[in-house]
Specification:
alpha/beta; Purple Acid Phosphatase, chain A, domain 2; four-stranded parallel sheet; disordered C terminus
Length: about 160
C-alpha cells in the first residue's frame, strides 16, 4: 500500500472513530434495539465531476448514493469523503474547488476530512471551501496559523462532536 493510501485510510478510520464515539456519547441509554446504518465513502475524488475512462464522475456516484439512501433510508445513511476532493480536474482547478464543493453539496455529503491536496491553494482558499460546504469536516492537529496551537486553529467542531458526556 502506498504511503498516501495509508494516510487516507488512517484519516477515514479517524473520522469513523469520531462518528462512532459521537453516537456513543450522544445517547444516555442504550437503544432498545440495535441501530444499523450504512456508511458510504469516497476518496481521491480530485474534482473529477465528469465521467471519463474508469472515473465514474459525480452524477453516477450520486446516483449510487441516492439508490442506497432510497433502499436503506436517508436517515440511516452516512456519506463521507476521505480527502483530496477538489484538486485535479481542469474544471475544479479553474475555480479552486468551488465547482466540486457545490456538487458535493448537491449530493449531499454528510462529512469529510482533509487530504494533502486540500492545501494546494493555500489556507484562505481552503477556509473559503469549508465555509461553502454544507457538510462538516473532521480532522486532528491542523492549525490555520503558525503557532502550533490547535486550540487557536480557527476550525469549529462539527455539531455531533460538541457537548459533553
Amino acid at each position: 500500500m502506498r504511503t498516501s493510501k495509508k494516510w487516507i485510510m488512517l484519516s477515514l478510520i479517524t473520522a469513523l472513530v469520531l462518528v462512532f464515539s459521537a453516537f456513543s456519547t450522544a445517547a444516555k441509554a442504550a437503544p432498545a434495539a440495535p441501530v444499523t446504518f450504512t456508511i458510504l465513502h469516497t476518496n481521491d475524488f480530485h474534482g473529477q465531476l465528469v465521467a471519463s475512462g474508469s472515473n465514474p464522475g459525480l452524477a453516477r456516484t450520486a446516483a449510487a448514493i441516492n439508490a442506497v439512501r432510497t433502499t436503506v433510508g436517508a436517515d440511516k445513511t452516512l456519506v463521507v469523503d476521505a480527502g483530496d476532493e477538489m484538486q485535479g480536474s481542469l474544471l475544479s482547478n479553474l475555480y479552486h474547488g468551488e465547482s466540486t464543493i457545490g456538487s458535493f453539496n448537491a449530493v449531499p455529503y454528510d462529512l469529510a476530512t482533509f487530504g494533502n491536496h486540500e492545501f494546494d491553494w493555500g489556507q484562505d482558499v481552503l477556509a473559503d471551501r469549508t465555509a461553502q460546504a454544507n457538510h462538516d469536516y473532521v480532522s486532528a492537529n491542523i492549525v490555520v496559523n503558525d503557532t502550533g496551537n490547535c486550540a487557536t486553529a480557527g476550525w469549529t467542531s462539527p455539531a455531533f462532536v460538541t457537548g459533553g458526556p
